[in-house]
Amino acid sequence: MFEVIFLQFLNGLDKGSAYALIALGLTLVFGTLGVVNFAHGALFMLGAFCAVLFRRILTLETVTIDPEKLSPWGQPLEIREPLVQAWFGEFGAVLVNYSVPISLLLAIPIMLVIGISMERGLIKHFYKRPHAEQILVTFGLAIVLQELIKAGFGPNPIPQPMPENLRGAADIGSWLGMQANVITYPWWRLVYFLFSAAVIGAVFCFLQFTTFGMVVRAGMADRETVGVLGIDIDRRFTIMFGIAAVVAGMAGVMYTPLLPPNYHIGMDFLVLSFVVVVVGGMGSLPGAVAAGFMLGILQSFASMTQVKAIFPGIDQIIIYLVAVVILLVRPRGLLGRRGVMEA
Amino acid sequence: MTKFISRKDLTLFISFTAIVLALPFLAAPFGAAYPDLLQRFMIFGIFAIGFNILFGLTGYLSFGHAAFFGVGSYAAMWSFKLLSTNAIPALIFAVIVAGIFALVIGFVSLRRSGIYFSILTLAFAQMSYNLAYSVLTPITNGETGLRMALSDPRVLDRMFFEVPAGTPVPSLFGATLSGWNGFFFSAVFLIATFFLAMRITNSPFGMMLKGIKSNQNRMNYTGFNTRPYTLTAFVISGMLAGLAGALLVVTDPLAGAERMRWTASGEVVLMTILGGVGTLVGPVIGAWVIKYFENIFSSFNNNILYNFWSFLPEGMQSTVVYISSKFVGEGWHLTLGLVFMLIVIFLPGGIMEGARRIGALLERISGRTRSRSELKPTAAE
Hints:
The complex is a heterodimer of chains A (about 350) and B (about 375).
Chain A: H1 2-33, H2 40-58, E1 61-70, E2 76-82, H3 83-88, H4 90-97, H5 99-121, H6 131-153, E3 169-170, H7 172-175, E4 185-186, H8 187-209, H9 211-221, H10 223-228, H11 233-255, H12 265-280, H13 285-302, H14 305-310, H15 314-329
Helix pairs in contact in A: 1-8, 1-11, 1-12, 1-13, 2-5, 2-6, 2-11, 2-12, 5-11, 8-9, 8-11, 9-11, 12-13, 12-15, 13-15
Chain B: H1 7-21, H2 23-26, H3 35-58, H4 66-82, H5 87-109, H6 114-133, H7 137-140, E1 146-147, H8 155-160, E2 171-172, E3 175-176, H9 180-202, H10 204-214, H11 216-221, H12 226-251, E4 254-255, H13 262-275, H14 282-299, H15 302-308, H16 314-325, H17 332-346, H18 350-366
Helix pairs in contact in B: 1-9, 3-9, 3-12, 3-13, 3-14, 4-5, 4-12, 5-6, 5-12, 9-10, 10-12, 13-14
Family (chain A): Belongs to the binding-protein-dependent transport system permease family. LivHM subfamily.
InterPro entries (chain A): ABC_transp_permease (IPR001851), BCAA_transport_permease (IPR052157)
Main location (chain A): membrane
């Protein structure tokens, strides 16, 4: 029984990591700029498509027809060779193999630029307008972004292979001295969890231990006073928006081997991430992270067959159910500060 | 005693009725005069008016209204299957079921306001959608969707007369509801809904709702318990969504879960905003515009585009066609998203606000002092 529970716990971690990363970005934006950003899921999707784009570039190939050999269908054999491999040889093959993690390098600057231009170009003008209008305009932006991606990459999911030596599963049980092959966990999910833990840790350290982070935290607490002290807080907040976009984008890049991205992947995650943010407490960063993991794990437990036998269909609704209960019982969320959006 | 209906309202109502009933002729120049599309105009008009009673008057932004629409569809379909192929019992049944559903969801969701209310309604709608796809398959028939079958019991029909052979279709006391009949049937309901919305807006109840929108705290301080009022508005709006859902089943006898997805909820928000929040005619105009362009734009293909841009020089033509083809056909949602963003950014009052501004501008130009263009109600800020 312990093994089963432990396995479900592990299974919840990777989804929980994705929720936590997106919710972290949402909360950063809400906590600094006070904007409810419905386009945040679209940033996740854009990140995922950075990985797709990068792989497309890497696998540009030359097609040569070899008239000597025949393919199994009796046609002249086509030899496809990626250009990268032709130029760099072995190193090129390694590049193609590790295209997903390497595309982080491409995704970070792209997402930073997208995030900052989004804030300067659009969201800046909505600080003083009601929350409903912020929701609506970012919702419209999300539609536009995902339709642009659909126009560029087509409506179908595009599978991204993970690096070859990270396929298969890790035998976590035997590491912990349990029987072998009882608790196995796919390597890439483990990587994803560790990656997101690192990103979350980095964001918290950045906020906690740098001067920039200190100013941002001060601005979150009292924006006006920080402004009066002669600090250009708007600029810092813009950068925070960029960082939130980068976090969402990186979450998207690394998630592509787990779920082939299509144009509405962002929206699917966004709806859940909003629920996560509300459960964790609007504006509370630790709350967002904790609630992300908690809901991911809960969802994984709810999809156990034993649980489903008692409550049919619970796996479909558990997250929303938790959100409804939390909102009614403790409106500021699990770790929310008193008085922040406690209406 | 006050007059039952003011002269201004009467004019508005009569002109609205006239326009709706004359749509088959008015829409002809736009290539929209076929019953299927016009019926959708009516149905989504009802949906948008219903949504506007909640969002426009009380300011509560629900992101889960499609749930009521879907529930209405399913209820109507079950009435067709169990009771009778007559549309009237189906509509009544659908409105009642959607109303009860809205009562339960509204009772819970209205304990919170602002963004929390939006997320609560979204959560409930997603729950309904997910359940309709998974556990409730015996009721909803899952992905396939629910449709009528020859072997359905249809108790009322069988009790009174011989059931005709062939696949059952929705009817109205024996008259079929396909084609133009269906359009006029739905048009009657749209006009009735419009009348209801007009009466609500002008009633003390409507004033109360507007008061809640502008300042709920102050309403509470003056001694009103606002919750029963918001709940009533929520239930009315849910019932109208149910009515619209049921009418859609009458037109097209297939009830599917995808009508409950949050994208469908988003669509009705788009319609209302595009037309003008808080106005009477705005949501209807928004629904018509969106449905019209959805229909026209998604039928565009490259040939039509080539003809359209044929005045351009050869090389430029193909480039322009390539670019514009991304905005029509499959990609028409891109256009919708862009237009919607522009509206929210520059014209938060929607088309109605734009019309009012243009009207004001024209008046200033012509230098008239007394305005007679106040026929259309202004946005309830």
